Amino acid sequence: MAQRGERLPVAHHHASRLPREGQLDRPLAVTRRIRVAVAAQASLDLDRSTRILQAHTHGRQLGGCPLIGVDEILVVPRDHLDRVLRGHSSTSGAHRTPPHGHCHTPGMDRIHRVVGPLATNVHVLADERSHEAIAIDTATPCLAWIADELAAREWKLTLIVSTHGHWDHIGDNAAVAEHTSADVAVHPLDRDRLTEPKPVWAPFPIVPSIPAVDLAEGGVIRFGEIELRVLHTPGHTEGSVCLHDPDDGLLFSGDTLFAGGWGRVDLPGGDPDAMVDSLGRLLTLEDQVRVFPGHGAETTIGRERPWLELVRDAGRLLV
Q1: For 81-105, how does the pLDDT look when each residue is reduced to its tens digit (9 = 90+)?
Q2: Is 83 helix (H, G, I), strand (E, B) or coil?
Q3: Domain 102-314 class, CATH top level
Q4: CA 282 to mean position of chain CA atoms
C-alpha cells in the first residue's frame, strides 16, 4: 500500500506521473483504458475529455465499490463511463431505489437499508401474499430496523442469507436469528467465517452465528411463491454467492459485482482467477437484469457489460 505523498506508477506511458498529494486536483490526461494508481487519502480528478470521475478514498467508494486498501482502479472505455454516469445521476425510475426505500416487484416486496461503517446494503424481500420474508446480509446494526419493519408489515422472516462471510455482512446474523427464529444460510465454504468470525478492521465484536442451511450452486431459496436461484460465484471469498430471480430479472450480487467494479480479491479467501470466472458467468444474464450489490448503487448487467467483456476477453482482472 502506498504511503501518503508517495509517487505511484501510472500504467502505460500515455499519462504523466501521478502528482504528489495536494496536487491531485490538477487534470490528468488519460487514454481509453489505463490503470491509475490512487494514493491513500487523496482525490483524483480525471480529465474532462473522459467526463469527470473521482476516486475519493476519504469516502472509500468508487462507483459503489469500497476502496479500503485499494491501490489501483480501472478506467473503462469512455462510452461505458458515460452510460454509468448517466445511470448514477438518475434519482427516479425503475433502476433507482432510495437508500432506505421500498421497492415493489409484482409478487415481491423489497425494502432496503444502508447499514454500518462500510455502508452494506441490507435487503428484506417478502412474498406479498404469504408475507413470508428473507433477509440478505444482515450487517450491524440492522436488528432494530428489521424488527420494526417486520412488525409494521406483518411479515414473517424465515431465512437470513449471507452472500459471504465477511464481518460487514454478518454482524447481526445472530441477533436477527434470535429475534425472528429464522435460520441462517451460507455456502459451506464460508461457514467457518460465521461460526468463528475473524473480523479484519471491524470496529466492534462480531457475534458468531450458526448456519442451519447450506447454499449450493443451483439451489433454490423459496419464500411464498418466490424463488431465488443460488449462483456460486467465488473470487471475493471461496463461498461467495449471488441470488438470481429469473422471473423478475433481479440479481443480488453480494461483493462479487458492483456498479463499475468487482469485490476485492486480496483478502483471505480471495482468488483473482475465480473472480474472472464468476464475472464471466454473470455475462450470460440478460442486459435488463437489475443488480443489487453488497455495497453501493444499483446497476444492470447491460450497464456493466462493456467492462465485463474486457475482463472475460483478457482472462484476468484488468488492474
Answers
A1: 344 333 333 322 233 334 445 555 6
A2: helix
A3: alpha beta
A4: 14
For cell 447481526, what's the residue? 172
Angle, in degrees to the nearest 10, between helices 301-314 and 272-282:
130
**What is the residue-wise DSSP string for 175-198?**
HHHHHH-PEEEE-GGGHHHHHS--
Q: What span, in angstroms and rounded, lies between the C-alpha atoms of 202 and 171?
A: 10
Distances from the Cα of 231 to the Cαs of 159, 218, 221, in angstroms?
Answer: 17, 6, 11
Q: What pLDDT digit, counting tens, does each position of 175-209 carry?
A: 999 999 999 999 999 999 999 998 888 999 999 99
pTM for this model (two decimals): 0.70
Poorest-confidence range of 46-60, 65-79, 199-213, 240-254? Answer: 46-60
Q: Which three cell numbers mark 49?
A: 475529455
Q: Where are the domains of the chain?
A: 1-89, 102-314
Give CA–CA dist 191/215, Å, rounded: 10
Contact 205, 197 (CB under 8 A): no
